[in-house]
Amino acid sequence: MTIILDAMGSDDYPIPEIEGSLLASRDLGIKIILVGKKDLLEPILKAKNSNNLPVVIENADDVLEMTDKPVEATKSKPNNSMAVGLRLLKSGQGDALKRMEGVQRPALAAVFPTKNGNCVVIDIGANADCRPDFFVQFGIIGSIFAEKIFKKKSPRVAMLANGEEDMKGNQLIKDSKPIMKSANINFIGNVEPKELFKGEADVIVCDGFTGNILLKTSEAVGRLMTDIIKEDIKSTLFTKIGGLLVKPAFSRIRKMMDPSEVGAARLLGVNGLVFIGHGKSDSKAIYNGIKAANNDVNADLLGAIQSAIENQLKSRQEL
Amino acid sequence: MTIILDAMGSDDYPIPEIEGSLLASRDLGIKIILVGKKDLLEPILKAKNSNNLPVVIENADDVLEMTDKPVEATKSKPNNSMAVGLRLLKSGQGDALKRMEGVQRPALAAVFPTKNGNCVVIDIGANADCRPDFFVQFGIIGSIFAEKIFKKKSPRVAMLANGEEDMKGNQLIKDSKPIMKSANINFIGNVEPKELFKGEADVIVCDGFTGNILLKTSEAVGRLMTDIIKEDIKSTLFTKIGGLLVKPAFSRIRKMMDPSEVGAARLLGVNGLVFIGHGKSDSKAIYNGIKAANNDVNADLLGAIQSAIENQLKSRQEL
Q1: The sheet that has B274-276: what strands, in order across it?
Q2: Residue B230: closest CA among chain A residues belongs to which residue?
């Protein structure tokens, strides 16, 4: 298996990318192509790759910066590492990395930790405005994801809303409900954020705007709370000592909030596996992202999504 | 000043309502009308009101339950405590408790704690689907609220979005931006949830669906984190001892997350002050809600909102 990795993507590039790749290559026995400035990457890789693992470099002259505007940057920096990486993925698969046949809109899926497991939320940002027919496909794709990756039979699919009752929701939720009910998924209705975190659904469907607010609110509240607790623990000698003793009790929360544990978001509904990491990714995050990609390939996630979408189209024609 | 309080509204009614009212009446010197089942309320009030404070009862035969559907319940239970309370408010003010003249849609406003103060978010649930002209008025009303209640000069008004850049947002955000910019408010653009919690805006405008997800996600993440920390602190003797020592360091977080501190949400844009409390409200929450209502009256919040809306309408006619 070969993984193509944008080596200039994290805030601290390229060290996390190089270290994470070497770890993953050694552990999982896979080849990794690092895409980025050869002059920068080569000496670091040489110094660190003492075992001559199959981690190689593909040169990309340009680097995308946070201040770059996406549309302009694709013109002014045609050889940015992300674009070169995506072209590489495309060329390796013929004319792939298009939308999968029959898919209305590719969507970003992210795994949220819950009180007793995981929940995949789709869409967390690819489509700010959605239609009911997108929602049905998000439900189907999310359902396959939960089956293949969480190993969950008949995953519970819900729509994120401002109340569980049938009359709750905005117009999009109300319009989507009838076709969600008739789709070939285990649709359980609306859930609120608290049900998400209690683990009462395996798949949560929402528009990319709402999903993005959900994701970013979770991160922001988590950060605010830990910042304040950390600050206040330092305030007296007693609380400092208490803080040391109590430290092991925070490991589960730390793990839950750690972006390197949660892993990267997946763009689903395209003919290829594309992972989008957090800017704050460290080498562990890169390693976990590569591991997840490896797992997705072994589980044939793409093939399973493609079949499910084909079945949806077939059953529609039969109606 | 007289406050009308639904005595059957909290999960544990009517004890929190009676105790909170007595506290508020004693501290603030105001009269409170408790609306609810006289048979139930009278003996409790008599037993607790040892100082003969001006807390009186208005009978309402029916009680709304969580399982009641709002529309059906207004018919099957016409004399529920909330309806009787609202009629009482209406009769006291002539034909008031209608929409304020010129207001497109009344909205629910809630105060969020931030790293360095407070931020009012409007709308958190009254209007699941919004239009740009609603957004402008939410901005104006929120701005007056921040001026009057937070005592903030020229409050910073932002729209909640999935990114700060101008091209981010769903269609509603994009459509609203030009008129938000030209409105008579200190509009600072889009903010993400993390800017909210950092305290980088005083007023955040959003549709009621998104605002409700924001509110409920904040509560759910806060609860999940404290539940897990509490559980894990109990896991070993060392962490238990540490937990006791560290306890004072959690007081700020506890206060932040305490619904009885945050207070009730306000329905703004109607001719009257209507507070909607959390189901989990205890007597402190009721007390704080009454105190906030008292404060809003003293600050002439309603009058200020009415003038601001009148000015908006005038400046529109002048264009």
Answers
A1: B186-191, B156-160, B203-205, B117-122, B107-114, B265-268, B274-276
A2: A249
Chain A residues whose CB is inside 8 A of the B242 CB are: 241-247, 249
CATH dotted code for A107-318? 3.40.718.10
Rounded CA-CA distance A30/A93 in Å is 18
Rounded to the nearest angstrom, the minimum Cα separation between A165 and chain B is 9
Which residues in chain B have their CB less than 8 angstroms from residue A128's CB?
162, 169-171
The hierarchical CATH code for the domain A2-92 is 3.40.50
What pTM did the predictor assign?
Answer: 0.90
pLDDT per residue as tens digits for the range B13-41: 999 999 999 999 999 988 999 999 999 99
Domain B2-92 matches domain B107-217+263-318 at the CATH topology level? no
> For residue range B213-267, what is the model confidence (pLDDT) as tens digits?
999 999 999 888 888 888 888 888 888 998 888 888 888 887 777 766 666 899 9
For domain B107-217+263-318, say whether CATH 3.40.1130.10 is its number.
no
Instruction: Please give the DSSP secondary-structure letter assigned to residue A250.
Output: G
Q: What is the pLDDT of residue B97?
A: 66
How many cross-chain Cβ pairs, A to B, lie less than 8 Å apart?
A: 183
With left for phi above 0 and alpha for psi between -120 and 50, is residue B18 left, alpha or beta? alpha
pLDDT digits (tens, 9 = 90+) for B107-121: 999 999 898 899 999
For chain A, the domains span 2-92, 107-318
The ipTM, to two decimals, is: 0.88
Residues of chain A contacting residue B169, judged by C-beta atoms under 8 Å apart:
128, 209
Shortest Cα distance, chain A CAs vs residue B83, angstroms: 21
Structure confidence at residue B75 (pLDDT): 80
Least CB–CB distance from B246: residue in A196, A214, A246 = A246
Out of A194, A209, A233, closest to residue B170 by CB: A209
Q: Which chain B residue has the Cα nearest residue A70?
A: B167
Q: Where are the beta strands (DSSP E) in B254-314?
A: 265-268, 274-276
Chain A residue with the nearest C-alpha to that of B250: A229
Chain A: nearest CA to B117, how far in angstroms? 13
Question: Nearest Cβ partner of B233 from A208, A241, A249?
Answer: A249
The C-alpha of B289 sits at a distance from chain A's nearest C-alpha, in angstroms, of 23
- Among the residues of chain A, which ranges form H helices? 15-28, 38-48, 70-76, 81-92, 132-149, 171-182, 193-198, 208-233, 237-246, 251-257, 259-262, 283-298, 301-318
- What proportion of chain B, given as a percentage, has pLDDT over 70? 95
d(CA B97, CA B76): 23
Dump pLDDT digits (tens) for B36-61: 999 999 999 999 988 889 999 999 99
